[in-house]
Task: inverse folding
């Protein structure tokens, strides 16, 4: 099934979040697909209390339930590799609004010269959209405490309508739908004036 929007992805009958891993590094409980690949169904891991950061460097993000986000063993970032990416984790309720801080860069090609559009949804609520270009940028959006406290586990969805496979633009044979290089995702309480 191909998912085309955050609404469809977040519907109650959506697919389970799963991740393909190298069999030689697969954790206990992984389901073996073949000699080289296994699949795991990660549970929502605890984020901790804000201020907290999820790093996409050296697979530090692999503990969280995710879809549409690749792994990175040696780079300081990870690709989104679908038109919809989701990250799920548990975190305690908050008393104040939070800043969501996304450190990322867009993939710019002749077919996406304007950059990569991204819509960011938290617990089913659109909190903002942005266009990311081919330089590292920090996007900061406010998550209302009522939105954060609405659900547990918390779910962050990135809609990436301009994701494109390098193989379709002659860049390489890579058929993944690439849009963003993710460096980190942070959550910090909004400062009280």
Result:
């Amino acid at each position: 099934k191909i998912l085309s929007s955050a609404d469809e992805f977040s519907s109650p009958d959506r697919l389970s979040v799963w991740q393909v891993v190298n069999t030689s590094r697969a954790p206990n409980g992984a389901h073996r697909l073949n000699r080289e690949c296994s699949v795991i169904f990660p549970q929502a891991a605890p984020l901790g209390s804000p201020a907290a950061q999820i790093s996409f460097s050296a697979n530090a993000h692999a503990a969280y339930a995710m879809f549409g986000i690749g792994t990175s063993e040696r780079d300081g970032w990870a690709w989104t590799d679908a038109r919809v990416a989701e990250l799920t984790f548990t975190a305690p309720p908050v008393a104040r609004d939070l800043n969501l801080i996304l450190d990322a860069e867009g993939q710019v090609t002749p077919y996406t010269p304007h950059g990569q559009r991204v819509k960011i949804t938290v617990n089913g609520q659109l909190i903002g959209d942005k266009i990311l270009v081919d330089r590292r940028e920090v996007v900061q959006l406010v998550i209302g405490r009522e939105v954060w406290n609405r659900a547990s586990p918390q779910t962050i969805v990135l809609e990436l309508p301009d994701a494109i496979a390098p193989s379709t633009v002659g860049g390489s044979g890579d058929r993944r739908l690439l849009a963003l290089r993710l460096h980190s995702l942070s959550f910090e309480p909004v400062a009280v004036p």
User: Anything to note?
Assistant: The radius of gyration is 17 Å. The chain is about 5% helix and 40% strand.
